[in-house]
């Protein structure tokens, strides 16, 4: 099945034999837009059909005026180094940045995404109807922040609405990630490695062939409903290494995830986390509250471990990974024995997410271009802040679904593809346009992208 990019957003590309030739190539695109101001779709198709040099630029745009303004500025559109082929990795985020309407644009414009999402909704019965209403309605516009700093910071919080509830938020994120992965696969974008953060490991395991979409969806839904029944907890992202954070935890709070060399997520019962927040504040230790109603990946999940193990044994089929799968529990590649052992998934529920180590394995052993699937840019930020991510690697990691109010799914997805194309992603444009084509692989270069100024702390589970 193929899918066509909606022509409300299109992707202009240009290239040159060397870096010095890029401004002239961009100017030629500007000239064509000026001589034929009727639209960008025809020009975009023409540009994508050409043979291209190793130095590249790309722009996702809605109309001629937007394209002209961006091309004249020219910032952040072009790679600094020539393309060099590399494998593709997909990164699946956890919950924490989901928002109502996050699937609206892709569900409306992309038939493959819509079909995959609808299969998920149908499999979930009444819950699927509830998720459809939440995910595919037009998202609310972002609220304008007030003038004071506190209000501006508060405005940055993700408006999760009903999706803040675990029973809704976790299957919602899985549906969006699975449907996006299916859309990319229909375009020939097949990963050589996958990594998921917390709940995202289920979508990653599905993409790797460990779980069928049906089994993964039923497992995620059952797991989320059972977690919802547990006492509420909380989580904090602390700006300190794990070794420095652990002495603060006391008897009830655990390390939940190690997301960076200087960031550790902790969680536990709500009262214990609140008390820890007071002590950290008094000591001047920076932290941020994570948008989570439970202490994911801590001892608070232990009452479900045996039930989860039994549910998987009786209701799901686990297969050896067909694609490299980074394991949260170990921080390295999942073996066939681990991936097919229900006990691994029970441990995944209660053990910390070793994201820092997992990203290290990805950079060391695969050295990919990477697309983050799921809402927000949490894994993109973590991957870019990893010690192994030097400057040439920054442009090789891109988000595909920006945060609430930051743009449509199609525009974000095209922007990501364009940036990775400038970094060397080999794209079969005919297949992306719905005319058939061949498989797509990934590759590398640097671009004008830079690291985020601060590490992202939104993802919770």
Automatic annotation (TrEMBL):
Organism of derivation: Actinokineospora bangkokensis
GO molecular function: fatty acid synthase activity
GO biological process: fatty acid biosynthetic process
Region feature (Disordered): 434-461
Pfam family, one: Acyl_transf_1
Protein name: Malonyl-CoA:ACP transacylase (MAT) domain-containing protein
Keyword Nucleotide-binding: no
Domain of life where this protein originates: Bacteria
PANTHER family reported in the protein's UniProt record: FATTY ACID SYNTHASE, SI:DKEY-61P9.11
InterPro entries recorded: Ac_transferase_dom_sf (IPR001227), Acyl_transferase_dom (IPR014043), Acyl_Trfase/lysoPLipase (IPR016035), Malonyl_transacylase_ACP-bd (IPR016036), PKS_NRPS_Biosynth_Enz (IPR050091)
Domain Malonyl-CoA:ACP transacylase (MAT) stretches: 91-429
Assigned keywords, A-Z: Phosphopantetheine, Phosphoprotein
């Amino acid at each position: 099945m193929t899918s066509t990019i909606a022509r409300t957003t299109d992707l202009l590309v240009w290239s040159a034999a060397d870096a010095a030739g890029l401004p002239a190539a961009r100017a030629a695109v500007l000239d064509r837009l000026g001589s034929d101001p009727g639209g960008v779709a025809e020009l975009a198709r023409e540009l994508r059909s050409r043979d291209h040099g190793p130095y590249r630029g790309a722009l996702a745009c809605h109309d001629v005026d937007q394209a002209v303004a961006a091309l004249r500025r020219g910032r952040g559109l072009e790679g600094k180094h020539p393309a060099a082929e590399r494998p593709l990795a997909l990164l699946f985020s956890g919950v924490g940045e989901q928002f109502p309407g996050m699937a609206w644009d892709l569900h409306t414009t992309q038939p493959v995404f819509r079909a995959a999402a609808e299969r998920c909704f149908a499999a979930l019965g009444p819950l699927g109807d509830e998720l459809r209403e939440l995910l595919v309605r037009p998202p609310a516009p972002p609220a304008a922040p007030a003038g004071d700093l506190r209000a501006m910071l508060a405005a940055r919080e993700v408006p999760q609405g009903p999706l803040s509830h675990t029973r809704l938020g976790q299957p919602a994120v899985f549906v969006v990630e699975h449907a996006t992965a299916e859309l990319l696969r229909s375009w020939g974008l097949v990963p050589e490695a996958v990594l998921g953060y917390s709940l995202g490991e289920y979508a990653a395991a599905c993409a790797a062939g460990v779980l069928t979409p049906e089994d993964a969806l039923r497992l995620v839904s059952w797991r989320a409903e059972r977690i919802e029944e547990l006492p509420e907890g909380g989580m904090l992202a602390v700006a300190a290494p794990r070794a420095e954070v652990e002495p603060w935890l006391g008897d009830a709070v655990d390390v939940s995830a190690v997301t960076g060399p200087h960031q550790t997520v902790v969680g536990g019962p709500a009262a214990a986390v609140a008390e820890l927040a007071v002590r950290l504040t008094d000591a001047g230790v920076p932290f941020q509250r994570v948008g989570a109603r439970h202490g994911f990946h801590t001892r608070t999940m232990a009452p479900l471990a045996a039930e989860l193990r039994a549910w998987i044994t009786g209701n799901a089929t686990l297969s050896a990974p067909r694609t490299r799968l980074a394991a949260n529990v170990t921080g390295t590649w999942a073996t066939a024995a681990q991936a097919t052992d229900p006990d691994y998934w029970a441990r995944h529920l209660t053990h910390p997410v070793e994201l820092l180590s997992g990203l290290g394995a990805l950079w060391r052993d695969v050295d990919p271009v990477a697309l983050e699937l799921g809402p927000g840019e949490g894994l993109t930020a973590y991957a870019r802040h990893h010690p192994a991510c030097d400057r040439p690697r920054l442009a090789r990691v891109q988000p595909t679904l920006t945060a609430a109010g930051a743009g449509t799914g199609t525009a974000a997805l095209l922007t990501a593809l364009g940036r990775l194309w400038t970094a060397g992603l080999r794209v079969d444009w005919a297949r992306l346009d719905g005319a058939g084509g061949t498989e797509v692989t990934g590759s590398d270069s640097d671009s004008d992208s830079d690291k985020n100024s601060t590490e992202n702390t939104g993802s919770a589970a």
